[in-house]
Specification:
With 600 residues, this protein is mainly β. It folds into two domains: 264 residues, Neuraminidase (6 Propeller), CATH 2.120.10; 264 residues, 6 Propeller (Neuraminidase). Helices cover 1% and strands 42% of the residues. It is built from one helix and 56 strands. Strand 19 and strand 20 form a beta hairpin.
């Protein structure tokens, strides 16, 4: 009689706690604590990733799930390029020729953009990406749009598409020149591709309607293979000829269908979280990436496909309890489960109200001694600090400390100001920038729990930026600078307790945003650019990448300021119009897919 170890090569272990790594896949163990036999199973799932910075459809894609590339697209003709790091998107170099319905292949550090459309003309332009910038190369033989591609930057294949009608031509690229390849059996446009130049796959597309036809290329000729289960066009694909995936598209209805190819036939698997067409794709069959597409508002959404023993949950915002009083231009402190907000502008009244959050509901507490809006602050729910503020006409240098029950006035700041950024704790705080002096301030002050002292100035005059971190490792992001040309900024300021240095540029220029976390693990959200935004992005101490967006666009909001994007954060209130809504952020997580074995 065979044993489990003889069959599988593993013992049935006796454990008090479940294992926590992928090595447990296929293992059976007895958990004595829960009195159950358990195992780990691989499963397929799409999970949310960070949104594209620029919403778009009909774009090009390349790379992998942890090093993806998105470029071009519409509406209209876009040149934007974005790079994905497995969590969110960061800005890359722009295409030289803005266009949509182009093809893409290659990697994040060696991408290829082929053909496309700039109304009213098809384009023949070809560009190579080196991880920083695009350079023009020899054109494809005939201007083409809605085509597909496969391969690498130095050994690529472009096929199908639309010139004056659907075409079946394919062209091979050696890194310099294009030569004719084999002709496809079915002419079509808006198809998807995968694989290599000598082992390519073309599937789906449009020719008088959606098609399910799949063809394989061997480096010289195309051969029909197993058809898609769902005929469609404007779909995306990823993988290689013997292990590909197809996702999204239209039939003409927009679909979320995902199918996997094993080199012979297609089989359905879990669907995208959101149906979409004209999207971008990258990655492999077990680790795919889908981004952008139509219809709105999913044009910035990113999803990751994984077949793994690990269950991935993407970062997301969820509704929390409503603030008692809707307002904007307030400030916040504390954490997601012990939050504090104070002051603000209620329309038309300036507010002195203070509210505490317990992770589910807000409760009103004792007011500030002096009402204020566009004030700054920091600290915790039981040791908060409010400083600087507008209050009707005057701008004030007032400082107040909160002990969990009431506010007490402290020594004034050296300079009256508002619309400043603040960070730190009640006994070690920083205030930087603000107004209303002309030019706007770049001064910095530190608080030691008793008094304020001047420190070194910020690199530019600025106000309305987010602030996070500590007195010796602080962070500001965004803001508005009146220095010519006056504009919202992408400036990240890093403070070491003495001096300011400039960190990585933000994904978008913004003002009126709020930030939470530390200098090396921060999230910023909301603001205006110039309209209200629900965007969020995360900072690792070097660069910003996009994150999950809030449900509500808002500016001059508040939030928690003592946790980073890998954990939790809180977005509260804001305008305009004023809102009392609260949203809670939870960073992405992963865990083993542990199943209890039952007898039925």
């Amino acid at each position: 009689m065979s044993t489990y170890k003889n069959l599988i090569g593993k013992d049935v272990n006796f454990l008090t706690t479940d294992p926590d790594n992928d090595a447990a896949e296929g293992q059976i163990w007895y958990n004595s604590t829960s009195d159950a036999f358990k195992t780990v199973l691989a499963n397929a799932a799409w999970s949310a990733g960070g949104n594209l910075s620029t919403s778009r459809s009909d774009l090009g894609g390349a790379g992998t799930q942890t090093a993806g590339l998105a470029f071009g697209g519409g509406p209209g003709s876009l040149a934007n390029t974005e790079e994905y790091n497995g969590s969110g998107w960061a800005n890359g170099g722009n295409l030289n020729t803005a266009r949509s319905t182009l093809a893409g292949t290659g990697t994040q550090a060696a991408g290829l953009a082929i053909g496309g459309y700039v109304p009213p003309n098809n384009k023949a332009e070809v560009e190579e990406y080196n991880g920083t910038s695009w350079s023009e190369q020899n054109d494809i033989p005939v201007a083409n749009r809605g085509l597909a591609a496969a391969g690498t930057q130095t050994a690529a294949l472009a096929f199908g598409g639309f010139t004056t009608t659907e075409v079946a031509t394919s062209n091979e690229y050696d890194g310099t020149n294009w030569t004719s390849g084999g002709t496809m059996n079915t002419a079509r446009r808006f198809l998807a591709g995968a694989g290599l130049q000598t082992a390519a796959l073309g599937f789906g597309g449009y020719v008088g309607g959606g098609t399910a036809v799949t063809e394989e290329y061997d480096g010289s000729s195309w051969t029909n293979s197993g058809s898609l289960a769902t005929a469609r066009w404007n779909l995306a694909g990823a993988g290689i000829q013997t292990a590909a995936s197809a996702f999204g598209g239209q039939t003409p209805s927009v679909v979320a269908v995902t199918e996997l190819y094993d080199g012979t036939s297609w089989s359905p698997t879990v669907s995208l979280g959101t149906a979409r067409r004209s999207l971008g794709g990258a990655g492999t069959q077990p680790a795919g990436l889908a981004f952008g597409g139509l219809p709105s508002p999913v044009a910035s959404a990113t999803e990751e496909y994984n077949f793994s023993a690990t269950v991935t949950t993407g970062a997301a915002w969820a509704s929390g309890g409503n603030l008692g009083t809707a307002r904007r231009a307030l400030w916040g402190a504390g954490t997601q489960t012990a939050g504090l907000v104070f002051g603000g502008y209620e329309d038309p009244a300036v507010s002195a109200k203070t509210e505490e959050y317990n992770g589910s509901t807000w409760s009103e507490q004792n007011d500030l001694n002096t009402q204020g809006y566009h004030l700054a602050g920091c600290g915790t729910q039981t040791a908060g600090l409010a400083f600087a503020r507008g209050s009707g006409t005057p701008v004030m240098p007032l400082t107040e400390e909160y002990d969990g029950t009431s506010w007490s006035e402290q020594n004034d700041m050296g300079t009256a100001r508002y619309v400043s950024a603040g960070f730190g704790i009640q006994t070690a705080a920083v205030c930087v920038g603000g107004g209303p002096s002309v030019p706007t301030m770049n001064s910095t002050e530190e608080y030691d729990g008793t008094s304020w002292t001047a420190s070194n100035t910020f690199p530019t005059t600025i106000y309305a930026m987010g602030g996070a971190g500590t007195q010796t490792a602080g962070l500001t992001c965004g803001g508005f600078s009146p220095a010519a040309p006056a504009a919202n900024t992408t400036i990240t300021g890093e403070y070491d307790g003495t001096n300011w240095t400039t960190g990585g540029a933000m994904v978008k220029a913004i003002q009126g945003n709020f930030a939470s976390g530390t200098q090396t693990d921060a999230i910023q959200f909301g603001g205006a650019n110039p309209g209200l935004t629900s965007d969020a992005s995360q900072y690792d101490g070097t660069s910003w990448v996009t994150s999950a967006s809030m449900a509500n666009a808002r500016s001059s909001l508040a939030g928690s300021n003592t946790s980073g994007y890998t954990g939790t954060a809180l977005a509260v209130s804001g305008g305009t119009p004023n809102t009392n809504s609260t949203e809670e952020f939870t960073g992405g997580t992963s865990a083993l897919n542990i199943k209890t074995i039952t007898i039925s």
